[in-house]
Amino acid sequence: MLQTGEPAVQSEDVINKRFGRTIAKKRKAAGYTQEQVSAHLEIGKEAFSRIERGINGVSVGKLFALADLFGCGVETFFVEAAPVAKADSTDSLLAGLSEADRQLVVLIVEKLAARLKAPR
């Protein structure tokens, strides 16, 4: 349990920078400009730029709006901004599986991704 005055594991600045990088990556992958996203969020371009650079934090409401715009789940921002490398995390999940089971997991993920990308 944390004592009063004891530092948190991650500073707010570090968390903001991780979320900002993840948001910028998702924005670029979705093909949006900062101007388009800031208009969608109803904030100024500079305010959105500060979020992407990690200078300002992002509210939960804005994360949901971004997830909707980018076509991903809101949890994506938390997973991708986590300090543990995604590849390491995935490797550890698959480590105890046989080759056949790993291939099955890949097949399931591919089919799920295709279904989620399909127009609704």
UniProtKB/TrEMBL annotation:
Q: Which parts of the sequence belong to the HTH cro/C1-type domain?
A: 23-77
Q: Which InterPro entries match?
A: Cro/C1-type_HTH (IPR001387), Lambda_DNA-bd_dom_sf (IPR010982)
Pfam families, alphabetized: HTH_3
The Swiss-Prot or TrEMBL record annotates one GO molecular function as: DNA binding
Q: Which domain of life is it from?
A: Bacteria
State the protein's name. XRE family transcriptional regulator
Write down the species. Pelomonas aquatica
